[in-house]
Amino acid sequence: MIDYITFYDKNIKTSKKVKDIFKSLSEDHDFGFELPKLPYSHSDLEPVIDAATMKLHHGKHHKKYVDKMNELLGESDKSLVELLQDPKDVKDKEAFLDNAGGHFNHSYFWITMSPKMNQKPSGKLADNIDEQFGSFDKFKKEFIEAGVKHFGSGWVWLCVNDGKLKIQSFDNQSNPYIEKCGIPVLGCDVWEHAYYLKYQNNREKYITSWFKVVNWDFISKKI
Ligand code: MN3
């Protein structure tokens, strides 16, 4: 696994070959161009995320992004992450990024959640969260606040940028690769389709509950 923070500290600040570094980092995030299978059943994240939402979210919403992305993709030998960073070969770039971003974001969303609830960050990630946000609880509060404050559809991200962890939110299906502001560590979908059936308009309650299913064991291994 790539140690993102050390990698950034050692390379991004000193090397001019930023594109090559991005390429090696992004290989770890390459999901290809097909709808991935969920790593658990639709009901495994209950009561945090209900089975009906999971079924619709993965089987309908995510699938639609995948179908549309492939329609717009045409001939390309680039990887998903390479295309998110630089879609110059694609004709309708804006529509492509909306859908390819949707595919990346959801693919990553599924694997960063787990039925093994109430996990906490560990190792270097935990140390960095404590150091940069004060504590895990303070980080959580800031992340939830960013999600609640985000107007309309979008995603809240924890990303690594220039060796530092940062919380940022973006509209629609954008993400740190598209915005060129670092490497995604954790993303929370704050579109209403992600929570409306169970939480109605209570986005704060949704994001607060969602923290229970974050797969920190998986994410901590990457940092
Ligand atoms: Mn979604």
How would you explain this protein's 3D organization?
- The chain has a three-stranded antiparallel sheet.
- The longest helix has 23 residues, at 51-73.
- It has a single domain (1-33, 50-223), classed as minor pseudopilin epsh fold (3-Layer(bab) Sandwich), CATH 3.55.40.
- It is 49% helix and 10% strand.
- The protein has ten helices and three strands; from the N terminus they run αααααααβββααα.
- With 223 residues, the protein is mainly α.
- The termini are close together.
- Helix 6 packs across helix 7 (136-149), helix 6 (123-133) packs across helix 10 (216-222) and helix 7 runs antiparallel to helix 9 (203-210).
